[in-house]
């Protein structure tokens, strides 16, 4: 008589069956005999991250509504009211939006104290905050990546100078430094974005420097230098592509931080200034109406919260997608 569950048979143990069910995405792809690039593996991991996908949808919807509702540049507006025309407050300026029975009405977000449509005002503030946040995310990422890569590759006195400058920016409180520079910028969104970019690159620079210090000792870098490849090509063609995961994740987190920083600066009077507006400025202008007209406070606050949370969840999804140590099970 043959015992099919011998203790020395690894295929019959519960642990073996558990291991078979917990293969990572990459291992299952190997068994399917398909060839996938690293970029395809990253995309598959990202699309399987439900939180990131939901956040991406929310962020895209907010952006599309903000830029198409009241228009921007060549983009036509479909909302029939503007953010600068005053009028007569109807029913005390209360929101006409109803969930049950569903109804949008003339002023879904209500009206401010002088009768301006608050939906148009909130969309204008969302536009300005998004422009500042994504501009800062792009510029600070470029600046931090270049400084970190140069410092990590050349080392010596170049690294010492660049890292001491980085430390100087780090030790100064970010909000204080941004407030001083924002006051000098004059309140324009592009000048404000440039100012915030100059103070938001330090964290990424240190991360990229650490990655480059490790990668520059690898064999492929030594081989590139041995055949006479220039330093710039080694940095941007061979080293930085291997740090793209760190860079992208850091960029998304910078965008989320910038949304909150811009809102804080505008709230304190050092950011966007009237007659223009932003989400932080709307909260600042109507903070005294919190008890009498709470919708003037809640709508811009909810937009800030939705954007910041969406970008943060996107960053989490990208981090999981780029991290090769993630051992997610395939759906």
UniProtKB/TrEMBL annotation:
Give yes or no: UniProt keyword Plastid: no
What GO biological process terms are annotated to this protein in UniProt?
transmembrane transport
**Which UniProt keywords are present, listed alphabetically?**
Cell membrane, Membrane, Transmembrane, Transmembrane helix, Transport
Q: How does it sit in the membrane?
A: Multi-pass membrane protein
Looking up SUPFAM superfamilies in the UniProt record yields: MetI-like
Query: Where in the numbering of this chain does the ABC transmembrane type-1 domain appear?
Result: 126-315
**Spans through the membrane:** 53-75, 130-154, 161-182, 188-208, 239-261, 296-315
Q: What are its GO cellular component terms?
A: plasma membrane
Q: Give the matching InterPro entries.
A: BP-dependent_transpt_permease, MetI-like, MetI-like_sf, OppC_N
Q: Where in or outside the cell?
A: Cell membrane
Could you confirm whether the keyword RNA-binding appears in this record?
Answer: no
The family assignment reads: Belongs to the binding-protein-dependent transport system permease family.
Protein name, entry field:
Oligopeptide transport system permease protein OppC
Q: Whose protein is this, by species?
A: Serinicoccus hydrothermalis
What does the organism's lineage look like at the top?
Bacteria, Bacillati, Actinomycetota, Actinomycetes, Micrococcales
């Amino acid at each position: 008589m043959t015992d099919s569950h011998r203790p020395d048979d690894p295929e019959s143990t519960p642990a073996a069956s558990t291991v078979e069910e917990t293969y990572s995405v990459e291992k299952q792809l190997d068994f399917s005999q398909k060839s996938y690039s690293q970029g395809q593996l990253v995309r598959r991991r990202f699309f399987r991250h439900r939180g990131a996908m939901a956040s991406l949808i929310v962020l895209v919807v907010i952006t599309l509504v903000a830029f198409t509702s009241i228009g921007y540049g060549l983009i036509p507006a479909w909302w029939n009211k503007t953010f600068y025309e005053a009028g007569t407050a109807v029913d005390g300026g209360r929101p006409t939006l109803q969930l049950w029975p569903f109804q949008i009405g003339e002023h879904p977000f209500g009206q401010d104290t002088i009768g301006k449509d608050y939906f148009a005002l909130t969309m204008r503030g969302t536009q300005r905050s998004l422009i500042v946040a994504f501009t800062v995310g792009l510029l600070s990422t470029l600046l931090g990546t270049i400084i970190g890569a140069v410092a990590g590759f050349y080392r010596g006195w170049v690294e010492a100078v660049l890292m001491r400058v980085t430390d100087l920016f780090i030790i100064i409180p970010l909000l204080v430094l941004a407030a001083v520079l924002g006051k000098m910028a004059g309140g324009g969104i592009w000048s404000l974005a440039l100012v915030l970019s100059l103070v938001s690159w330090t964290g990424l620079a240190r991360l990229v420097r650490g990655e480059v210090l490790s990668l520059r000792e690898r064999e492929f870098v030594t081989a590139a230098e041995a055949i006479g490849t220039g330093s710039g090509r080694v940095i941007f063609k061979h080293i930085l592509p291997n740090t793209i995961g760190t860079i992208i994740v850091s960029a998304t987190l910078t965008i989320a931080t910038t949304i909150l920083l811009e809102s804080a600066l505008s709230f304190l009077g050092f950011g966007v200034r009237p007659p223009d507006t932003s989400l932080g400025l709307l909260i600042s202008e109507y903070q005294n109406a919190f008890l009498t007209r709470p919708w003037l406070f809640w709508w811009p606050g909810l937009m800030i919260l939705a954007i910041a949370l969406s970008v943060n969840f996107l960053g989490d999804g990208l981090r999981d997608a780029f991290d090769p140590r993630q051992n997610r099970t395939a759906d």
